[in-house]
Amino acid sequence: MRSRAVLPAVLALLSLGLPGALTPLAAKEAPKGPAAAEASPGRVLVTKLEGPVTPVMADALVSALKRAEREGYTALVIEIDTPGGLETSMRDMVRALLGSRVPVIAWVTPSGGRAASAGVFVTLAADVAAMSPGTNIGAATPISMQGPMDSTLAHKVTNDAAALARTVATQRGRNADWAERAVREAVSIDEREALRLGVVDFIAATLPELLAQSDGRSWRRSGQSHVLRVRGAAADTFDPGFMQRLLAMIADPNIAYILLMLGFYGILFELQNPGAVLPGVVGGISLILAFLALSTMPVNTAGVALIALAVVFFVAELKVASHGLLGAGGIVALLLGSMILFRGEGWHVSWSVILGGTLTTAVFFGWLAVLAWRTRGRPVVTGLEGLRGARGRAIERLSPRGRVNVRGELWDAISDSDVEVGDEIEVTGGERLTLRVRRSAKEAGR
To answer: Which of 182, 211, 242 is the last residue of a domain?
Structure first.
């Protein structure tokens, strides 16, 4: 009896207090959240940040971060090789990196590459920072793209950038003192010195080595610490979309310069030859694309003004007998404008593009000037001036007004002497749509 009473009690106790004891081990759920992501290497997304830091690059980085978050990548690897760029774009990138829900590994690569100026901030903002052999980082002193700054403004801008560098470095556990020196003193160091000073975490020559050394390192978000598991992870490459590739292509200083020149000349030729259509279409599209590209770069307005002035000089050379002075002035203005079109390190038009564009422009407008000069001594063949000296016949009696036939066309005419129907006349001038005529010498001698 006792055994029969004890058995139901034991079963009731197990059902109330120990439900997990009756659950088979195979039915237990797998862990969720960061712990599950850290259990296996998964995949990493790799993107490149190459060239000047611009709004296009910032947009590409944000797109890569969104894809990494959306598709559940274990980490985002950004390969950095930049001379620096716009401060506003840099701050957008730093803000995106600090708020990313996916850990970010910054890798200054390839050998010979650098993370200068704005690139320093991007590298410091990553969860893991590494450099390839033969690379350097530093020289983050801000400069003005619109001209020299007075001492007060320069001091304010430098202090602001130094505070940002120290804040980012401190948040990521890196050398905040060096980060501030990179801004205030423009110091630059190679990969070994960066490792010794704690600016980066390690040196890696290849992507597998980068992932192997990143494995096991901790990263924090929202006060929680996680462990990075990327050793042996498969790598996918992030390719920007069509619009980003288009903007990246035209944001090149050389491309923007060529588009600007095509735009100026296309509009100019359309104005000189109304109805040609094609030059106006090509020029309008080129000019809009050029302005779009220039909006992402540190442009010197004086450079744009000099290029526009050069075009004006070249056109004036076709209209005014300046003996080549306007053409020479146009060449000088075009060269100067091309050289100072952009401000800042890493922003310039290639000398081959400048010389090629200037030479082509000078030859073309020089050829037009020669043609215009040759036509100045020739008689006018159009309009009323072109009819001077032409012969015709009177179809009405001119006393003094009537109508005449000149070159198969009927004209109102006026004569100083009477002209009979059928007499041969000679055009001596004209005003508006009325010709001034006289009897030809042959008719007068009869």
So the answer is: 242
Work out whether strand 114-116 and strand 136-138 pair parallel, antiparallel, or are unpaired.
parallel
What integer pLDDT is reported at residue 25 of this predicted model?
A: 30
Q: Which domain holds residue 297?
A: 252-376
What digits encode the pLDDT tens for the residues 176-208? 999 999 999 999 999 999 999 999 999 999 999
Which residue is associated with the tokens 């104005």? 271
- Secondary structure letter of residue 418 according to DSSP: -
Same domain, 187 and 326: no
Pairing of strands 75-81, 104-108: parallel
Q: Taking a C-beta distance cutoff of 8 angstroms, is the pair 106, 129 a contact?
A: yes
- Count other Cβ atoms within 10 Å, centred on residue 188: 18
Same domain for 105 and 184, yes or no, is yes
Structure tokens at 32: 């969720």
Find the DSSP H helices in 320-401: 325-339, 351-376, 383-386
What residue has token string 């944000």? 62
pLDDT band at 15; cut points 50, 70, 90: very low
Q: What's the pLDDT tens digit per position in 397-436?
A: 888 888 989 888 888 888 888 888 888 888 888 887 788 8
Query: How distant, in Å, are the alpha carbons of 12, 108, 258 from that of 113?
Result: 71, 7, 27
Task: Compute the distance between CA of residue 179 and CA of residue 146 in angstroms, rounded to an integer.
Answer: 25
Q: Are residues 326 and 294 in the same domain?
A: yes
3-class state of residue 52 by DSSP: coil
Number of independent structural domains in the chain: 3
Dihedral sign of CA atoms 96, 97, 99, 101 in order? positive
Q: Are residues 333 and 215 in the same domain?
A: no
Same domain, 223 and 325: no
- pLDDT > 70 in the chain, percent: 82
- Residue 434 structure tokens: 């009325």
Greater confidence, 325 or 110?
A: 110
